[in-house]
């Protein structure tokens, strides 16, 4: 059987609210407990007061469950049979349940609540929150005051009252409850400041200022002089200028401010680099505004980027460097004689010698001599003792069980050692070692220090083109050799991460296996880079590349002001072999 429960309530203004619900059951329970089918919220009613069940021919049997009676049509009863077609009114405390029958055969139970002179509201007050709480209006005002106090008054008051208002990450958090003002997590670079908002937000309601950033990043340099930055950007449009005026009213600095590029509270992780458009807004046609600039226009690596340039020694023996185009024809005078192709061959005498030495494989590879720097951007200088001497031995004498070697890198000491050689005949210290190919007796690189020779002859031979030093060094003509320069960084305004390219063979970009001269500048050209790298918006690119992939807005060797660095940092300029000239 289906009971249709219709509850009628009234608002404070007298508007009627009707709610209907159906109960599919042959028995209907009525009482104060919430487990009943009809809940009567009146202390005068038992937890389970009345049970209504269906009988023969649709009759309703109403019975009291406990010892309390009920009132039906004004008569107190404990059990009664009711015909719903005729109707009836069951009274329980302040509630009246009227029974009737709907046209579709459902039994209708209408629940209403009446006002009585003895105080209906007082009787039901114990069943709602209004008896224990202030009014809704009062609660709303209390909530507003609590929110203002917790999230506005207390943080602002504690910020204004704090003792130290200097920027910096080392201060103690003196602003209370300011974490609720955070719009998101800080990046990994600033994660330690998560609970120290005033380290950056020194003044309330004022944007982070440049001097605040520089209190920690004091060694960082400007990209260029501020006036040149503004000139290179060009005039603003009307809309952009209006937005910057609005931002200025809230304490935000101009377009050259740190916070223009470095936005925080964007979530944990690495801080996102500036978009390509940020760079191209100045560099796309910068020469039209900065007519004295030496930088080429650029706005997309795949379609509009100048040819790569490297910083090299163009004059033999000169420690100054100049920038040259990497067009495949660039040369460098580094003071060495070194044929890469011969050393990387898999079939010649070098390969056969490497195969006999435990430190190498069947043939030499680039990593046998070139070791990366800690930052993986460049390579450490090749050292004679660690890389070359395993094949190019400088041993010239043996005394007992001790071998005597020439002092590499010190020409004066080498001369002294050769002049002090014992003139008495001796057995060659290299006896039993058969050098293959060009290293055999009579070959270009053969050197026998075991044969008796006049001292001046040994010195002259060592420092000549055919001598042991002349194998790798260029004689200076005054009894010494040309200075040698090795660099870990060839780019002035860019960086290159070799670790990100370690899946490629070295010869993919550096054609060392085809080079017969140390003057060949084995640097990749722009065209070779574009075989994999294209612009940031290139859909078909293997590696979409933004400006920030190779360029940094704040290179570590930039000084403040000007147009950027004039030369790399002194401690990375060169590994130099400098002879003491004119000494005997």
Automatic annotation (TrEMBL):
Keyword match Oxidoreductase: no
Taxonomy, superkingdom: Bacteria
Annotated region described as Disordered, given as residue ranges: 558-584
UniProt KW keywords: Electron transport, Heme, Iron, Membrane, Metal-binding, Transmembrane, Transmembrane helix, Transport
Transmembrane parts of this sequence: 138-157
Cellular component GO terms, alphabetical: cell envelope
Compartments where found: Cell envelope
Entry-linked Pfam families: Cytochrom_c3_2
Chief subcellular location: other
Required co-factors: heme c
CDD domains (alphabetical): Cytochrom_C3 (cd08168), FHA (cd00060)
InterPro entries reported in the protein's UniProt record: FHA_dom, Multihaem_cyt_sf, Tetrahaem_cytochrome
Name by which UniProt lists this protein: FHA domain-containing protein
Organism: Qipengyuania flava
All copies of domain FHA, residue ranges: 28-77
Lineage of producing organism: Bacteria, Pseudomonadati, Pseudomonadota, Alphaproteobacteria, Sphingomonadales
GO molecular function: metal ion binding
